Hints:
This protein is an alpha/beta fold. It has a single domain (22-179), classed as Dihydrofolate Reductase, subunit A. It has helices spanning 19-22, 49-59, 68-73, 103-110, 121-127, and strands spanning 27-32, 37-39, 63-67, 82-86, 97-100, 116-119, 133-139, 147-148, 157-166, 171-179. The strands form two sheets. The chain has an eight-stranded mixed sheet, with helices on both faces. The protein has a two-stranded antiparallel sheet with strand order 2-8. β3, α3 (68-73) and β4 (82-86) form a beta-alpha-beta unit. The longest helix is centred in the first third of the chain and has 11 residues, at 49-59. It is globular.
Amino acid sequence: MNPEGMKDIKTADASRLSKSSKDSKVTLIAAIDQNRVLGKNNELIWHLPEDLKRFKRLTTGHAIIMGRKTFESLPKVLPNRHNIVVTRNRNFIKEGITVCHSVKDALECAGDKQPFVIGGGQIYKQAIGLADVIELTKIHSKFEGDVFFPKINLKEWIIEKEERMVHTDFEYSFITYTKK
Ligand SMILES: NC(=O)c1ccc[n+]([C@@H]2O[C@H](COP(=O)([O-])OP(=O)(O)OC[C@H]3O[C@@H](n4cnc5c(N)ncnc54)[C@H](OP(=O)(O)O)[C@@H]3O)[C@@H](O)[C@H]2O)c1
């Protein structure tokens, strides 16, 4: 059992999204700079406590879907969430996580009305076409990085909410996009 008391599923083999997962509100959550940079050398670049608090508040109690590289970058399995890791490695097993072999399979086995896709670049790219909501933290500054969030096509997405904030080193915004 994982920390949420949900049954661990080690593999999933769904090739399409079922009706139940289509009924769910698939949400991407990410923090990016003004050039859509996400990270560098498999690490986050900035330290923004307000963003971490928001991430925790929004994702607690939900399924969180991540690529194997993002999982490896975390210090531990994130508590009070159903941690789902996507990998091509059929032998990948770790305590406290569910392993899936595609983003669609991960959404199938999430068993959640609002599963969160938490990165990284490869997984966001594959998930954005399946998403209903994007919870974005946009940092209005430039950083060097090697992984990027996909472009958000404003013909497909509308800004539902936007809140601009000030940090000591930069300004940033919390933006909620919903699919048109
Ligand atoms: N700023 C943010 O909000 C944020 C959020 C999350 C992550 N990040 C950053 O993003 C970076 C990591 O992103 P990344 O793009 O390098 O890696 P990633 O998306 O986290 O993980 C990539 C891995 O996912 C697996 N994968 C990808 N597509 C798959 C598919 N179709 N089927 C099965 N498995 C698949 C593969 O694992 P295997 O190699 O095991 O097969 C692949 O190597 C780090 O720098 C991290 O800090 C930033």
